[in-house]
Amino acid sequence: MQAKTGHISYLSCAPYTMIALSKRGALMNRSAPALLLAIACIAIASCGGEPETRGVILGETLPADVVKDKSARQTVVTGDGDSQILFGDLHVHTTFSPDAFIIAMPLQGGSGLHPPADACDFARYCSSLDFWSVNDHAEGITPRRWAETRESIRECNAASGDPANPDMVSFLGWEWSQVNTDPSRHYGHKNVIFMDTADANVPARAIAAPRKRLAQAPIGRALQLMMSLVDFENRQFYLGIQGYYDEIADTPVCEKGVHTRELPTQCLEIAEDPRELFTKLDQWGYDSIVIPHGNSWGMNTPASTTFDKQLNSEQHDADRQILFEIYSGHGNAEEYRKWRASVKEGDGGLFCPQPSDDYLPCCHRAGEIIRERCEQAGEGAAVCQSREFEARQNFVDAGNSGHATVPGQQVVDWLNCGTCPDCFNEPMDHRPGATAQYALAITGFEEGGKSLNFRFGFIGASDNHRGQSGTGYKEVKRKFMTETFGPTSASAIGSLIRERQDPLPYSEPLSADGVSLMNARNMERQNSFWLTGGLVATHSSGRDRVSIWNGLKRKEVYATSGDRILLWFDMINGEQRVPMGSEVSSAINPSFKVSALGAFKQKPGCPQHAIDGLGAQRVQSLCGGECYNPGDERYRLDRIEIVRIRSQLTADEDVGELIEDPWRSFSCDGDPSGCSAEFSDDEFTATGREAIYYARAIQETTAMINADNVRCEYDENGLCIKVEPCYGDYRTDSDDDCLAPEQQRAWSSPIFVTPQE
Description:
Strand content: 15-25%
Radius of gyration: 26 Å
Shape: globular
Number of helices: 20
Number of domains: 2
CATH topology of the largest domain: TIM Barrel
Distance between the termini: 65 Å
Structural class: alpha+beta
CATH superfamily of the largest domain: Metal-dependent hydrolases
C-alpha cells in the first residue's frame, strides 16, 4: 500500500540524501545511474507536500436488512429485560497519533497512513460495530488535526443513516497520555469521550499531558531519507516524518493558569495531572466521560505504581471518571497479585525482590543474565556475585528502561520475567497495584473522616493504532490485526532503528541522557504480548447516540476479550431488578442472577454487504480480507465465575485479603441457549461492610493470538528455561499467528452494595 504524502518543512533533500548514502556503503552497490536517478527523484518530486488529512470516507450507510439482522442477533429474549446489547470500541487511534504515525512505516511492518476516515470505514464494514470513538494522543493533535478530527467524526455520523436508528454512532474524543518515571507522579493514560460532536459543544482544543521531546522525530532526517531510498515506492511517507513533528513544534504551548475558554484556539493545551484535566473539563462544561486505561501495562507504568494517589477529591472526578478499561490489545488489567516488580526500602528507595513460585522479577533476571555472562568470561565467583547484585539495582534504578542496562540484551534472555503465569492474557510486566481489582478494593481516607471509593464500570477496547477498531472479531493475521511492529527484513534500516550492543559481562547504569525514543521501551519483547483487543458492550434502549450514551453513564456496560458474548448480571430483590453498574444499599442479604450466551462462530472472509459497500480491493487493503462475519452457531460457555471484593475499612488493611477471585463458580452444561446461575451472599448482613460483585462469563477453549506470550518451555520443577518469542519482525514467519489455547470471556460491570443503615 502506497503511503500518502506528508508535510515536509525543510527546503532541500539532496544534501541529506548524500549524507545518508555515505553512511551506508551497502547502498552504493547500486549502479551510479540508478542512484543518481533516485537522488533526483527524491530531491525534486518528494520534498515538500501537504499535511496528512482526515481522508475520505468511502463506505455508505449499511443496508437496512443488515442492521436489522445485527440487532436481532444482539437482542435475546431471556426474561432479564428487553434492551438490546450494542458493541463498540471507545479507544481507537489513527495516524494523527505520534506513535501510530511511526508504527505505520512500511519498512517496519506498517501499512501506511490510516487517517480518521479509514477508522470510520473499518468500524462500519470490517468490524461491524454499533459505536466507536476516536482517541488520538492529545500531544500530537495540533489545532489543524483537531479540526480535521471533528469534521471526520461528523462525516462518519452523517453516513450512518437515520439518527434515530443509525447503523453506527461515532463519538469524539482524545487520549490524555501522562507518563512519569516517578511512581508518585505517574497517573497513567485516560481517554476523554464527549457526548456531542458540534464545534459549539466540544472543547476548542484537545488537552494533552506534558511530554519531553514532544516535537522530536524518533528517527533523524538522514535515516528518513535512507528509508525513502530503500522503499522508494513509499518515499513520501518517510520524508513526511519530519513534517509531522514540525507541525507539532510549530504549535505554541498555551499559557498556564488561564481559563481554558479564554485561551487562543491555535495553541497546545497542557494539563499536568488529573486534577488539572478535570478542572479544564469543568471549565468547558460539556458532558464527557473519562476512562483510565492501560494501567497495569508495565511498558509505561513504573513498577511500584498504585491507584492510591488518585483516590482523593482532587485527583478523581466521580462524575466523569466512571468507566475502567479492563482489557485491550495491550492486555488484561483485571487481576491483582501480591508480588511486585520492585519494593520500597525503609528510606524510600527501591530494591529488587526475590522471585516467588509464581513470579520472576525482571530485575532479578537481569542479575542472572549478568552472572551467567560473567562466569562464561572466566571471572571469579565473588566478582560475578557483585556484578549480579549491581545489575539488579541498575535495572530497578532505570525504571521502565531497565532492559537497557543489560548490554546486548535479547528477548530470549528475559525468559518469562515480569509475567503473571496464572493470569488471563496479562500485559507485559504486569503492575498489580494498578489493576481493576486493586482499584475497587482500596479506600481513600481524607481528613475529617471522609472516605472515597472508585465506582468503575468495566469496558474492553482495542487501543489499536492503525485506525482498526474492534479487531478482536477474529484471531487471524497477527501482523495486521495487532500492534505487532518490526522491520520486514534483516536490512541495515532495521538495525539502525534499534540500537545494538555486544553482550558484555557486566551491567551499565542508565546514563543521564537515557536512551533513544525508539529504545526507551522494550518493544521487541512487547511483540509477544500484543493482542487483538476487546470490546465494550452496553445494554441500550435504542441504537441512537443518546441511548448509547445513557447506557455508558449508567455503567450498564460490560467488557469482552473480543468475542461478542452476551451477558446479563442483576441483583434481584423481590420483583426489583438492579442491573450491573448500580450502586445500592440493602438491609438483607443480596441475591443475584447472571445469564450469558456464547458468541457466534465466525465464517472466513467478509460478508457480501462489505464487499458491495467498500469494493473488493478496499476490503482487502483495509480489512485484510477478513471481516466480522458471523455464522448461526454459537460457542458454548464453559463456566460463570463471580468475584467478590470488600472495600478497605482502614488504610493498612491488606488488599489481597479483600479480593475473592473467584468467590463462586458455576459450571455450564453446554446448552446452546446459554448459561444462567442464581446465588445469594449469606454473609453480607453479618459483616456489616460494603461488598462489590461482578461476573465473568468464560467461553469454551479456542485459539487466541499471543495467548502464550513468550511461549515458555518448562523444566520438571515448573521453571521457564527457554522461550520462543513471537517477534514483530522477519524472525517470526509472517504466517505465524502465534496462536495458543485460551478462553474468551466477558466481565460484567460490578454491582456495589452497601449495608442499609
